[in-house]
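User: Can you write out an input/output pair for a complex, sequences first and structure second?

Assistant: Here is one pair. Inputs:
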Amino acid sequence: MLTGRMALELYLDLISPPCRAVYIFAKKNNICFEFKPVELFKDSILGRKMSGGQSHEGQQHTEEFAKVKILKKVPVLKDGVFTLAESTAILLYLSRKYNTPDHWYSSDLQKRARVDEYLSWHHNSFRRIAPKTLWIKVLIPLFTGQAAPPEKLQEVIDELAASLVQFEEKFLQDKPFIMGSEISLADLMAVVELMQPVGVGCHIFADRPKLAAWRSRVEEAVGKELFQEAHEQILNIKELSSIEVEPKLKELLAPTLMKMLK
Amino acid sequence: MVVELFLDLLSQPCRALFIFAKKNNIPFEFKHVELIKGQHLSEEFGKVNVLKKVPALKDGTFTLAESIAILLYLSRKFNTPDHWYPSDLRKRARVDEYLSWQHTAIREKGCRIFFTKVLMPLAVGQPFSPDKLEEAVKEMNFTLVQFEEKFLQDKPFIVGSEISLADLVAIVELMQPVASGCDIFADRPKLAAWRSRVEEAVGKELFQEAHKQVLNAKSLGSMQLSSELKEHLKQILKP
């Protein structure tokens, strides 16, 4: 009978910001895990031919993976028979199980509350808005063969700008990091999301010195090499623009994509 | 000095806090911030929460926004019973998982139904759009399937055998469509049974008290929104 400890598995696609947060956190804290690559846009963006009978939505939706995640999203953690979705939940689980340094999720009641506060606000702000830049600037043109209307991009940029104002005013203020003097899960979740627009050429840090300074501090605290490694794919995402996508796929995905513009 | 909770029970997250604090006998001062009067948009309230949203907490000089953060803060500060946020690593993770997912799922879809059917008509002075409502209900239906299949499954509560913050946060959000006249429990026996259990665990009287205002359909439909609020809604709801 085969026995042996099953390694911690993390199902990730580094194009996805929450996956980057989990990846960076695990690596930074020397948490041993098996990287299970999930390519959200496989068979679509990469223009690879689909084998017969495979879901047109790409590898992520294959049956095997669906067993792991009914919600059909990444990141996913699998620890033995225990599977967990939602990056916030995964980060907290890892921080507790592996007893990571206190600053990530301070044991001080009020400092911890500040992190919780950011992690909650994050969903309907950066998490909701930032990814749209990728869709509008890269994915929609790739799949529809047409540029998205410029007003749409401006709309998203304006929305993001408003969120950035709130972020600076409410969460960052004049502190080095969201919680205070040290990096926490809050900074990590925020920064990876804000790299999405950067990857597609929306230089949101360019005219925001305070934000740019915070980003530098976060990169430094995480480790520049690790930060770069995690962001390599998104920072080279424009390479995708030149790929030929199968017309059939374009047709299939077009309605979903047009919905994203709303 | 007693904790101040800035609440309006029309708001789902405010109800979760209200119920949680009362159920756990947490002494607090109820600071009513009347949403329909636009009181949350005032400069004064902005000093409590610069994001100008309810709920908010003030504990001495410490102010806190975001209901999830406030619930967790109260559970820790007042050492509430373990089942609300279990110390067991995996059970706790399940609560975190739900609390994270719900923002853009149950909460979002429930809000959308409420905005479409109740708020928007009041803001623009026109009847609600049946097409938009249909779309909103469709999305809610899809989300409810995910809720039942992934989070509830065949368990009495989301985490297992006892109520937790996850169930509390879920139930108050699901009461918003009900308050809007969309009874999502009607043809969902499993969901209805879970709701009964949650009401029971919380205490029926307390549950009713928290939901009294929002369930008063007549007064809901005749709310007089301040003009500032109307403008604000028209901007954020983008009809």
